[in-house]
Amino acid sequence: MNTRFKKTVVSKSPQETMKIGEEVAHILMKGDVVAFFGELGSGKTTMIKGICKGLGLPQVVKSPSFVFLRIYENGTTVYHFDFYRMKKKEELVNTGYDEFFYNQGIGLLEWADRVRGFLPESRFEIVMKVLSETEREIQISHTMDEIRERTQKKRADKMDK
Ligand SMILES: Nc1ncnc2c1ncn2[C@@H]1O[C@H](COP(=O)(O)OP(=O)(O)OP(=O)(O)O)[C@@H](O)[C@H]1O
Ligand SMILES: [Mg+2]
């Protein structure tokens, strides 16, 4: 039986997509990578805004237009990558990406399909589809099926503090 975690929701507005992002933030832990897939305007950056809000990062989140990476910091560090304009894989290697993917921050990666071979084996995946002008299908999963376990762990961590 395939019991792999996969949740699909439909958002009816950018605000709702942000709220879903805030919820996702609550299960994220340091060192996590979230790979976003989905066409132009499907809502990846909007969702990332919600995640950052949920993580308590007040910065203005926008698509990194001429850079691949923006860093937001406030106790938690977020590495916001956008690989849309990346032409060659070598450009990724030059960013020293693995330091970002495997350290104590949280990596949020737009256009993750462009760097598929570089993604860590254990990662969240968020697939966004445009259903209509205001509706987006959002599919959330984890490649290692760790979501339920970690929700419990995170709650326990909070109680320890
Ligand atoms: N339900 C929805 N969720 C998210 N965005 C929506 C929704 N309905 C409409 N939109 C609009 O779709 C656009 C999404 O833009 P956003 O920058 O988040 O997409 P993106 O996937 O990051 O695009 P890009 O690939 O260019 O980076 C915004 O203009 C937003 O207002
Ligand atoms: Mg974007």
Describe this structure in words.
With 161 residues, the protein is an alpha/beta fold. It has a single domain (13-156), classed as 3-Layer(aba) Sandwich (Rossmann fold). It has 5 helices and 7 strands; from the N terminus they run E-H-E-H-E-E-H-H-E-E-E-H. It has helices at 14-25, 44-54, 89-94, 97-101, 147-160, and strands at 6-11, 33-37, 69-74, 76-82, 106-110, 124-130, 136-142. A 7-stranded mixed β-sheet has the order 1-7-6-2-5-4-3. Strand 6 and strand 7 form a beta hairpin. Helix 1 packs across helix 2. The longest helix has 14 residues, at 147-160. It is globular and about 35 Å long. The N and C termini lie far apart (38 Å). 32% of the residues are buried.
Number of helices: 5
What is the helix/strand order?
EHEHEEHHEEEH
Question: How many beta strands in the DSSP annotation?
Answer: 7
Order of strands across the widest beta sheet?
1-7-6-2-5-4-3
Sum up the structure in keywords:
alpha/beta; Rossmann fold; 30% helix; 27% strand; globular; binds adenosine-5'-triphosphate
Write the layout of secondary structure elements.
Blueprint: E1 6-11, H1 14-25, E2 33-37, H2 44-54, E3 69-74, E4 76-82, H3 89-94, H4 97-101, E5 106-110, E6 124-130, E7 136-142, H5 147-160
Parallel strand pairs: 2-5, 2-6, 4-5
Antiparallel strand pairs: 1-7, 3-4, 6-7
Helix pairs in contact: 1-2
Magnesium ion binds next to helix 2.
Give a brief description:
The protein has 161 residues and is an alpha/beta fold. It contains five helices and seven strands; from the N terminus they run βαβαββααβββα.
